Batch of 3 targets.
Target 1
Amino acid sequence: MVNVFDFVDFREYLKGYYDDKKRGNPHFSYQLLTQKAGFSNRGFVFNVIKGTKCLSKMHCFKLSQALGHSKKEAEYFENIVFFAQAKNDEQRDYFLEQAIQCKGKTVTESHMMRKDQYEYFSKWYHSAIRALIDVYQFNDDYVKLSQKLSPPITAMQAKKAVKLLERLNLIARKDDGAFYITEKSIKASSEISQSAKNRFYLEYNRLAKNTITNHPPEVRDIASLTLGISEKTYCLICKEIRQLKEKIIELANNDDKADRVYQYQHVLFPLTNENNQ
């Protein structure tokens, strides 16, 4: 049984609910769920999951009834919907906090999605400052720290980032007051929603776009390939990319003379619609 409290991305939850029902009943469909919720547009739920339709408060209420939610589940579902559809950071923080409070003691601690973990993914410079602290002797000079980033941020942003990294135990102080990173490499928790990770990727993709004009070719490496491949070859390429990433991590971990911070990322995405054959 799919538990709404195990999700922060409401679209992932709806897709998981649908897949679970489909396995138990091959005749179950998005249309049946839509009808049960009382929506006139037969493709409404499918379009919501695909991200082309948004949910209002009344939509949430009707869907919760169709999904058999308890009062707490309905309240949680509504908050993660509004969290995903929020227009700014203030709204996102509010609905995320409401969602966390809804969980209360209804789930184990391992399923609790912490606000500060989401916050880590909300700005590109959080991970950049963590990496910078590993190569730069930092002793509370936030102005200097902020100016070391490219593009530079404000001293206040740098200070808030350091406080966040401390709360997450990603950095700590030595006896002399200087900071150090607690782990050489970290991975995103499985409890972090895909929407939070997507926001992180978008932040860095924006920087990657700007680096073309902001940095000379000798300090950056950019390549682009357009390929005609099969699904089998796609899977093989993904495997090669994973192995390359592991090798890059190994090289970085073994580098005891690091003096700068770089961002590595790759994007492999379709340029054709395989459904239109």
Target 2
Amino acid sequence: MAEAQHDNITACAEIVLKGDPARFRAAMAAPLALREKLFVLFAFNVEVARAPWVTAEAMIAEMRLQWWHDALGEIAAGGAVRRHEVVTPLADILSPEQALALQSLVEARRWDIYPDVFEDEAALWAHLGNTTGALMRASLGLVGVQSTPELDDGLAAVGLAGWLTAVPALIGQNRHPLPDGSEAAIARLAGDGLARLAPARRAPLPKLARRALLAGWQTAPLLKLAAKEPARVANGTLELAPFRAHMRLARLALTNRW
């Protein structure tokens, strides 16, 4: 049993390394016990996030997401859970309440299937809160910490930073990632994200909770860059230089910040 569990953790780590290297690096900075849990949670996120994109058939994409929704339902029910390299270890780390909360993440990913338009910025913020926000709230749950409305705003801002880096790819897939794609609107949106992030980062949290949130390590500099040079969002150059990114992660891990 222990060997099978180890194999599942290793498989989850490989999924995260290939599908979400930034979160993999953040997880590696966590203590071993938390690191393994983060690998499982982040592997779940990778699998759910890519489910809508592996097929052009909307019905099949819906079925893939429903599979994950049902798996979380099994975990929440506390009975038998389907055997799977991600679902099996996920059942070991989530409470029933946490599993139910993550169903909102799966449901929000249905946006990726269709070329829907966000009605306004409030709708975009709600989507970010239900995707990245839900994932990071689950990360906090792994160390027994509940989020707050102030933290929720900051966690959605983490989602915004990643979202802005993905805008060109989403547009290339005939999606409409921003309610207003003008440079002025992007700069304003990034500024809103920074305003939401600042108080959340000042909130008092235990050391392990800050390690659980370290996946947001690039958020502040990316949002500052988007606010200053919003054209980078459309042209796909919203990113940190590798050395700067590496040093920032190391500094935040060393100082127990996120």
Target 3
Amino acid sequence: MATTYLFVPWLIPRLKAQGIVGRDLNKPDKPEVAEMGGIAVVVGFFVGVSVIYAFDGIESVDLFNISLSAVLGAAFVGMMDDLFDMRQRHKAILPFIIALPFGVAVDPHFVLPHVPLIGSVDVNFGILMPIMAAFAVTCAANAANMLEGFNGLGTGLGIIMSVTLIMLCMIHGRLDGVYLLVPLLGTLIAFLYFNKYPAKIFPGDTMMLFVGATLAVAGILSNLHVQTVFIFLPLIVEFFLKMRGKFEAENYCSRAGNAHLVYKGRIESMTHVFMKRFRVDEQELVAIIWGIEIVVCALAVSVDLML
């Protein structure tokens, strides 16, 4: 947390000096804001992981290292996209390839949640597990990148989902994923201070692909496959809405007034729904999406406890 908090103020002027900026299209004056702030999140995350390595023993070091390669690979793909504007299919294929070693390393056995009268079901995907795990990581990485575009939105969603997964890990006593989730949570909280309205820095694909991949990897490590998919539901809905527009739609308003955001056009995002149907400003819109995610995560924890 401290690393990210101290690193961002140093990073902002240097990104601007290099012309790595984006316009905040949801503001009336469309100011330029430093882009690719995910660098600070990735750096802060790996400092946190290094502290864990130094002071808390990790049982399966090899698996943990392979897990880090998968999430770092997603961050690298995001950084390339921020710099070179990669095609959508490349953002889908590259994280998949990078995550394949992680898929090979994870246990092909996983236990579905306990259901009354049925009990727990042990599923073994065998040789299909590498493909399934890598596919899950790349889907999560790209899904996390779909619902972004407003100050603090993606960062806040990452915080909510990280807290939920940490709770589920503690409930089930499966702590492998916690070693990733705690550093992720700390660095996202620090980054939100600079990314909240009015944003001084944007996360970029560097952070969003990294966050989605880390959440997926942590869920797989802690054998919380179903629960992880559940908390991704708003992002899955966003994926299908984006698919309506062949993934070309952006989460920006058509016009930003002083009082509220206006959207005119086909609904191809959850954000479009609220801008089109209600009078909301940017902070209210972000709070609504956060609220939806909080409800989904609360349901995930409640249902898990009941089962």
